[in-house]
């Protein structure tokens, strides 16, 4: 366990090293975003294949940047060198800011957060990238909930400017200031929101997904809905394509958390097409098949 350093009262803790827990769609993207802004980032997973994919994703973003003349070979090498993949929990011991981005499952997250607190310094800040799970609920797995908040990035991380910083009832002002400063250092736009199911963006987005599911149950064709929302209404993508980007597993877990948390606003849907696709193993872009086929 690393030793904690004292931070002067009123000063914002300086964050020098990040750790990202989970190297999936989000963890890989968050690791890339820190690294490209010069921050050494330990990327921890329990699965070597996920670490390899996380690094591959970072390389492919940089390669596209090179093709457009925005990144040179030196920047590519220095960014990749700043991402340190590991399966070893002890490798995160010196991180100042730990961003948990493992599967959207409250039990798994609680276990990962509790283990993390035992590994890192007493003054390290711990955040969760959860899409919907209550920050107050997750905070219960920590001995020092004042150093914990939500830090919710959006997918794809390198393109989406917004980060929701979710203040739990015990989160300290110092933690919020440090996470706001880190978000800005990562080139992103922070907003601070209170804890509630779905926070701000998913509070709007998931009822929209639920409306889409109801439409499919009523007999609509998903390609037709996407076409209308994208080509005619003018959104960058329709709901089926967006669900494929988000991942059916994540969307299904998140919908359940929302309908459990605010049942009066988001009812559970019987035979929700999103749940059926998830159960059929069609997770979306992450495994090449969801509403659409990507292979
Ligand atoms: P994902 O399935 O792509 O990745 C999850 C990763 O966590 C996997 O690589 C898995 O091996 C790893 N993992 C599981 N248990 C672990 C453990 N104990 N320690 C370390 N790693 C572990 O999922 P994702 O889409 O990247 O989502 C991750 C989190 O981010 C979820 O909480 C999700 O709700 C949230 N989120 C997702 C999106 C999205 O659009 N996919 C957007 C914002 C937030």
UniProtKB/TrEMBL annotation:
Give residue ranges for domain 3-hydroxyacyl-CoA dehydrogenase NAD binding.
Answer: 19-196
Which residue ranges traverse the bilayer?
Answer: none
Domain 3-hydroxyacyl-CoA dehydrogenase C-terminal per the UniProt entry, residue ranges: 198-293
User: What family does the database annotate?
Assistant: In the central section; belongs to the 3-hydroxyacyl-CoA dehydrogenase family. In the N-terminal section; belongs to the enoyl-CoA hydratase/isomerase family.
This chain's protein is named enoyl-CoA hydratase
User: What's the source species for this entry?
Assistant: Brumicola pallidula DSM 14239 = ACAM 615
Of the parent protein, the shown chain spans 300 to 594 of 719
């Amino acid at each position: 366990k690393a030793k904690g350093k004292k931070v002067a009262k009123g000063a914002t803790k300086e964050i020098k090293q990040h750790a990202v827990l989970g190297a999936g769609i989000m963890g890989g993207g968050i690791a890339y975003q820190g690294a490209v802004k010069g921050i050494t980032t330990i990327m921890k997973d329990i699965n070597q294949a996920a670490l390899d994919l996380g690094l591959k994703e970072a390389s492919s973003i940089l390669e596209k940047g090179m093709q457009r003349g925005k990144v040179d070979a030196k920047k590519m090498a220095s960014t990749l060198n700043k991402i340190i993949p590991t399966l070893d929990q002890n490798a995160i011991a010196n991180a100042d800011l730990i961003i948990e981005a493992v599967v959207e499952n409250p039990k798994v997250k609680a276990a990962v957060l509790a283990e993390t607190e035992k590994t890192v310094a007493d003054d390290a800040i711990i955040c969760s990238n959860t899409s919907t799970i209550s920050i107050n609920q997750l905070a219960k797995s920590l001995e020092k909930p004042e150093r914990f908040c939500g830090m919710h990035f959006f997918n794809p991380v390198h393109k989406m400017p917004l980060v929701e910083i979710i203040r739990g009832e015990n989160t300290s002002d110092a933690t919020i200031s440090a996470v706001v400063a880190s978000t800005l250092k990562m080139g992103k736009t922070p907003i601070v929101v209170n804890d509630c199911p779905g926070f701000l963006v998913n509070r709007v987005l998931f009822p929209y997904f639920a409306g889409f599911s109801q439409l499919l149950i009523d007999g609509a064709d998903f390609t037709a809905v996407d076409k209308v929302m994208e080509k005619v209404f003018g959104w960058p993508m329709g709901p089926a394509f967006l669900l494929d980007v988000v991942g059916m597993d994540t969307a299904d877990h998140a919908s359940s958390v929302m309908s459990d948390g605010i049942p009066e606003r988001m009812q559970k849907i019987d035979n929700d097409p999103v749940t059926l696709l998830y159960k059929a193993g069609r997770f979306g872009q992450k495994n090449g098949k969801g509403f659409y086929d990507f292979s």
